[in-house]
Amino acid sequence: KSVKTTAYLNSIIDDFKLSLDNDDIQIKKQFVIDKDIEIDKFYFTTAVLNILENAIKYGKGNTEILIEAKIVNTNFKVMISDNGIGIPKKELKFLFDKFYRVGNKEVHNVKGLGIGLYYTNQIIKAHKGEILVDSQVDKGTTFTITIPIT
Length: 150
Ligand code: ATP
Ligand code: MG
What we know:
Blueprint: E1 2-3, H1 5-18, E2 26-32, E3 37-38, H2 41-57, E4 64-72, E5 75-82, H3 116-126, E6 130-136, E7 140-148
Parallel strand pairs: 2-4
Antiparallel strand pairs: 1-3, 4-5, 5-7, 6-7
The structure holds adenosine-5'-triphosphate (ATP) and magnesium ion.
């Protein structure tokens, strides 16, 4: 099922914004999408929402989120960047493990099971896609989802 990609991404983001009760969260978009593609709406929505939820949970106030989406060759790429607390380099390789949570003190009073990214990674892998993370402590984090276009 091919979807109107830009409209679809906008609708996920709009729904997410409506679910927030905090007005000082800025979400910017940069889409370069020149055709509609086939993506599984359910897994894609789940993946994006898990990452957006984390961007808010692990923010430092004045949260700014940038969502970039583009088509590169035969892949659909979505990058979600935040200006939150960041993740130490040595933790990055564990991030998609089941129940893994970074143990620093900023995160201590933030509730979670450590399952969001595990689940996100599983569903993306099941659809032959890939998710990568890059982060700098105190600066922010970027997740990149790459999904092959069939
Ligand atoms: P759950 O999603 O199950 O409610 P969670 O948010 O703790 O709980 P994950 O979404 O899997 O679990 O994230 C794992 C850990 O990665 C988090 O506990 C947090 O330490 C770290 N993390 C995830 N996203 C970010 C982010 N955007 N900025 C900083 N740290 C993050
Ligand atoms: Mg989470």
